[in-house]
Amino acid sequence: MSRISNVAQRFPTVEAVTVEWEECRHSGEEPAAESGTFSHAIRVTGGTLEPILPCSNPGCQGGGFEILEAVESMVSDRQEDKTGLLVCIGWERTKGRQAEQSPCTRVISYRIRLTYRKRGGLQRHSTARKDMIGIDEA
Q1: SS3 helix, strand, coil % of the chain, rounded to 5?
Q2: Cα-atom radius of gyration of the chain, to the nearest Å?
Q3: What is the spatial distance between Cα 14 and Cα 43, in angstroms, rounded to a whole number?
Q4: What tens digit of pLDDT does each residue of 2-58 get?
């Protein structure tokens, strides 16, 4: 998956994207982020956003945590804050069997916050609406 090289072009209504995450101790176990503090954070304000957060498992191949889908759904619903769990999309070689692979089971708890650009042009929008329903403003 390629980088989102210009967040402002891809998501024109979004001013900034903040992603915070913490690796869960065991599959499904909540990390210490319950206190509201995550160990990793990135903030993008129009630059480049990686669509996949890296997996910390040294044996993981092709892995990471897909955040792009979460950001896209937030933008379409105009959500400002979202939390959840993501499972790594990678795999590991099975010990003792080089040809067999098993899924990487690393899990992160994440929080994504979007800051939207101020909406402008409400006057223009309401005028266009009046014109659409046939009201003469003169």
Answers
A1: 20, 35, 45
A2: 21
A3: 12
A4: 555 577 788 899 999 999 999 997 644 454 545 557 899 999 887 788 889 999 999
